[in-house]
Amino acid sequence: MQFIKNHSRFFxxxxxxxxxxxxxxxxxxxxxxxxxxxxxxxxxxxxxxxxETPDHYNILIDxxxxxxxxxxxxxxxxxxxxxxxxxxxxxxxxxxxxxxxxVLARYKVSKVIEPGTINSxxxxxxxxxxxxxxxxxxxxxxxxxxINLGSQVSVDILFPDRDIHLLASNTGSIISRLVFAxxxxxxxxxxxxxxxxxxxxxxxxxxxxxxxKEGHHGSRTSVSETFFRAVHPTYVVISAGRNNKxxxxxxxxxxxxxxxxxxxxxTYNEGTIVFYSDGxxxxxxxx
Length: 287
Description:
Blueprint: H1 2-6, H2 8-23, H3 25-29, E1 36-40, E2 49-52, E3 58-61, H4 68-76, E4 83-88, H5 94-97, H6 100-106, E5 108-114, H7 122-133, E6 137-140, E7 146-148, E8 153-159, E9 175-180, E10 183-187, H8 193-202, E11 211-213, H9 225-231, E12 235-238, H10 251-260, E13 264-266, H11 267-270, E14 273-277, E15 282-285
Parallel strand pairs: 3-4, 4-5, 5-6, 10-11, 11-12, 12-13
Antiparallel strand pairs: 1-2, 1-14, 2-3, 7-8, 8-9, 9-10, 14-15
């Protein structure tokens, strides 16, 4: 009894680690059966989305406001994997890019994709310096670009459609669509509703998607009923911090999604949200 009492803290920590590992057990079991994993990481007030394709390409879209993203990646990436094929920066604000700096310190990265907007912050300058120092290939996103990630998987760029270096960071956010066979995810960064409706006006590209990553953490600035109806998602995911100072997601967003009957999954109350796709449908990994 005295031994148990003296080591109770150790046993509690051990049990918690086992439970955390079990959270992702279902997702990890799919890795050798042709599935794609999409994880909306719990990194607080910001965005970070990890994707592993059936051919084991690793993609990280945004990285949150600090080093927390590294711990979240360690939970879900293969334990021995230290390579990320593509980093995508949807906009240069701190809540999307600061986590990339510790990621670059830990992982070898092959390619970086940016929107073309700039930021005067020290974080942005430090990230750009690190990308240059490591001699990582850098591409500016442009509509029509298709990033091929193995068999039947691509990230299709829908916006920007021009040089946007003078636009505000949110207005210039990359909007892209992750496609695996018959399944897809709409990724909107912090895009405003005006830009969402603008890509509808451009036409030609399909935007219907199983999952929509709602823009700007559920802010009222990214609420467009026209866009929601066009995407027609089965799920909407909102990445935001618990009790954040911005009040995200805003009531206008949750009210509209409620009206449309679209379920909301939020990292602010569910933690990391994991889906896997077999190319025909998405299934959610329930904790």
